[in-house]
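Appendix B, example 12.
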Amino acid sequence: MESVSPALTDAFRLLRTDLLGLLDAAEFFGRMDEWDEPETDLAHRIIDDLVTVIRGMLVGHAATDTGVCRKCGESYPCDLVRTLHALIKDPDREFVRILHATWEVTPG
C-alpha cells in the first residue's frame, strides 16, 4: 500500500479544518441570542443547506440485493448510515423533539 505524501496529508488536514470551521460558524450563528429578519432568513438557509448536505451524504448509500452498500461496499447498513442514524435519531438531541413536534401539528 502506498503512503500518502506529506503535502497531500497537509492538504487533507487543511480541507478537514476548513469544513469544521464552517460548521463551527454555523453553530456559533445558531447560538446568537437575538436575530433580526435578515439573520432569521439566513438561519433558514443554513438549516436548508445542512439538511441538503446530510441528504447528499446519505442518498447513495443503499443496500444491494446481496446486502452490501452500493456506495462504499461495506455490509449494509454501512458505517455512514449507522453514524447518521445514531446522530439524527438520538432522543437526547433537539432534532428528534423538533420533528416530533412538527409531525404533531402538521395536518395529516
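The radius of gyration is 18 Å. Residues 7 and 13 are 10 Å apart (CA to CA).
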